[in-house]
Amino acid sequence: MDAGNSKDGESSTPLVESNDGLRNERLIPQLFTSVPALNEAASYLAETTSYITRCFGDFSEPSSSRPYGQEMVTFASQETRVSMVGTHMPSSGNLSSASESTNVATDAPLIFDGTLRRSDGDSFQSSNAVIQSAQTSQNGISIFQGLIERARKTVRGSADDIGWLQRAPGMPPVEDGTERFMEIIDDIRHGLHKLPNSMVYLLVPGLFSNHGPLYYVSTKTYFSKMGLTCHIAKIHSEASVEKNAKEIKECIEEIYWGSNKRVLLLGHSKGGVDAAAALSMYWTDLKDKVAGLALAQSPYGGSPIASDLLRAGQLGDYVNVRKLMEILICKVMKGDIQSLEDLTYEKRKEFLRKNHLPRELPVVSCHTEASISPAVLATLSRVAHAELPTLSAGSPAKLPVIIPLGAAMAACAQLLQVRYGEKSDGLVTCRDAEVPGSVVVRPKRKLDHGWMVYSPLNDDPSEVDASQFCEALLSLLVEVGEKRSHERSMKYE
């Protein structure tokens, strides 16, 4: 390019010389820093980024472990080392400003050909300035690329994972048992109970149940009044799935050895995942001791809430969302962050690739849909009484907390509906709660995730309550087991 042409007394400066040794990929950074308006905007962005970096500097991790973890830090450090005003080549006007910024005192015009040269023959190298300018511009572009990638991953969320079990090849189909379930509900409402006394019923609670003193209590009392033996599994609700699976296995063996009766399991939420893990991992030891498994509102395929909170590479990494969840679960709840991580789609896929429920095991899975009406969002019904540890060291006392669970579940259900277009009970989508090969119950009544274990304050007396709902699920499970047993006997004959 010829730099000798001028217009209105102003010299025209080339952006890139054809034989200046620069590679073609540096063209965009040079263009970015060659326009004064963009240069001012980049300077302002650098100052803002530097400020944000200082605010979140303690949360940064080495770039070797996180590909985008140091975009802001890198850009800010480049901005402090290199003066963007002093290293760019203006596209028009007198080049004396560039000469002053590089401490070159001369009145002679400058010529750019890979070096800055005065007309009297003296020259000085500007390669370092050009390289630093290109690196600064490339770092600036990498910031935008990293932020765009994080934003894309954050916005996309769990859209590709929800319902993955239904799309997985080789999975057995489900059978719709909703009609028969409603018939059993009607029989129970009229005083006809079909649960046999020849089995022991084990209720497996879900996540955070250790801090809910009323979790499953009413259902256990209801079963005991009917003369049925019922237990609540004593597990740490915030422990990992594999740890709870081992404890459930030991609990089943203890019940069987003490009563000589087979066990029928009903797991709610994560409790269903824990119970299914116990049967899939230890089926050889438990196949003669277990009669069936019912899962109510369980994230068998995974949970979008858990995945969206813990997924790496999101914008939330800048404020350490995962660290906040670790503090809540590990420090406040005295649990293990693995309990929540085990419910992510990634962990569920990994677990189910290695562990499958046995085909001969009778399984019933149930999911519901929460109401998202404005009336529910504003109500304080379905109140949960939680107990959290006090902050004083060494004190065993508990701090009671009242949670408007109905309103919280309605808000979460509305969020999942708007973001993913998925129906849910507030925490678990309907598609992720269906276990392949199971008899599925899909009630039309609007029930949120906490309704199964926490009785509402203003529940409709004309409707079935949570205890009767659990009885109907287990009654259906008994029928499924009897049908499977009859089919096997016919096959052998």
Automatic annotation (TrEMBL):
Biased composition (Basic and acidic residues): 1-10
Origin: domain of life: Eukaryota
Coiled-coil intervals, chain numbering: none
Entry-linked InterPro entries: AB_hydrolase_fold (IPR029058)
Span list, region Disordered: 1-22
SUPFAM superfamilies membership: alpha/beta-Hydrolases (SSF53474)
Protein name: Alpha/beta-Hydrolases superfamily protein
Organism: Rhododendron griersonianum
